[in-house]
Design a protein that fits this description.
A two-stranded antiparallel sheet has the order 1-2. About 40% of the residues lie in helices and about 20% in strands. By secondary structure, it is of the alpha+beta class. This is Restriction endonuclease type IV Mrr domain-containing protein.
Length: about 90
Amino acid sequence: MSINSNVKGREYEQKLAREFRELGYKDCVTSRSESRNTDNQGIDFVNTGSFAIQAKAAEKSPSYPGLLQDMAKAKKGTPLIFISVTISLKL
C-alpha cells in the first residue's frame, strides 16, 4: 500500500520543522499552518532566520531551476531545498 503524496510531503515537512526547532529555530513552523501566501510562494517554513526553505518528498527529482526561481521571487531569504527521495526497485 502506497502513502498518498500529500500526506508524505506533510509528514516530511513536520519532521523537518521539529529538527529545525531542535537546532535552535524555536519558532519554526510549516507555512502550511502559518501563511498561505508564503506556502504559495514555494516556501515551506516560516521563522527560519535568513533562509527560505522548500521541502520535497519525491520519487523523482523535481525541477530545481523552477523551484529556485519561485523562491527567489518571494525575496524571503537564501533559498534552501531539502529533498527526501524514495527509490523503488522492481526486481
